[in-house]
Amino acid sequence: MKPSRALLALLGVLLAVAIALGTATALDASVPLLGRLWWGALCALAVLALVDALWLRRLPSPRLERQLSGNLPLGRWSEVRLHLHHRYGQAQRVTLFDHLPGAMDFEYLPQVVELRPGEQTELGYRVRPLSRGHFVFPRCEIELSSPLRLWKGRRYLEERSETRVYPDFARIYGAELMAVDHWLNRIGVRAGQRRGLGLEFHQLREFRDGDTLRQIDWKATARKRTPIAREYQDERDQQILFLLDCGRRMRSHDGDLSHFDHALNSSLLLAYVALRQGDAVGLMTFAGDQPRHLPPGKGSAQLSVLLNGVYDLDSSQRAADYTAAVQAVLTRQRRRALVVIITNLRDEDDEDLVAAVKRLGRQHRVLVASLREEVLDRLRQAPVEGYEEALAYCGTVEYLNARAGLHEKLIAHGVPVLDARPSQLGPELVSRYLGWKKAGAL
Description:
By secondary structure, the chain is α/β, with parallel strands linked by helices. The protein is 38% helix and 28% strand. It has twelve helices and 20 strands. Strands 1, 3, 5, 7, 9 and 10 form a six-stranded mixed beta sheet that branches. A six-stranded mixed beta sheet has the order 17-16-13-18-19-20, sandwiched between helices. The chain has a four-stranded antiparallel beta sheet with strand order 2-4-8-6, with no helix packed on it.
């Protein structure tokens, strides 16, 4: 409990009068009547303040209910609603502040609200998670004014709420509202030209314009006495395994998200598309403090399995060990799969990485997705106007050339490499997957 501005103002007035009376007494011009009035005012104020403080202590606290989604997307604004129930006989103004986890940004707090008799008060504010994981909202803090407005009392309303912060899956679930192909076109994903037929027979149908002679089923044509074509569909029983680097290189930030968060979002984006295509999707991590292995699974429920399995993952300070990661894949993933390695390649990875990926490629189809810091593109395109800019430009070009050399070495050994900025990794991965899918190359 603390004094209000009104009480401090009254004390200030009494203090000013006391100084004036003291000055008058020092000048032999004291006014006894005014002195008695001052003492009377001081005593009256003390009594009122004491009564008002006791009154405030007996004032009941309102009851709080918090409406908070159990799942929040990383980096997106979400609303939290608060409901205050009370039994006050007169209007009461309170200042409210909710106790949030430290890894969340917020807007519209604190708030001053008026509690009216017989009414329930509702208010809201916005939060934006800055990191993934499990978070607790322990309580809410309010500041009550005493009936005479001489004191302010702080109360803590215990209301524990829990939520999980997931990778930014809002746009993935938003795709349910439209056709997958239309949605992929909207975000810049285009399937490559189909160069052959899929591996799975779908049905027989009448021959149409645009069909090739290879599609004609001659036995069915002879029976029906009309051209009958075979219709194929993309193979729907393939497996995709993400091998996600959780090491220190993934801690770099481009914008609000780290490279690791961009990698998670991109993996979930491709997982969504692949699951809609009928394929099985799984995930493994390496170089992290929390190793995870989610075996490939099919169906819409697998996306929830992936989300629940990675929402609290974080990058570590460890170096990436590609040899150990490949060994773990070969041990656990017996069936042939498309293994998507998402990492940030450097030129010092040369020997170990090439040997490990070549070994993995003997049993699986491999795609190495290498994240490229966006600052490198900005430095390479920035005008050179001085010595410092020249040094930055030359260092950037040398680093990118060494990095490109490693990519070319992998490609020379038959390992495709996807070099992408973090913000473009998701669409690039989906484009490559759909291209291989249409070509029957998985």
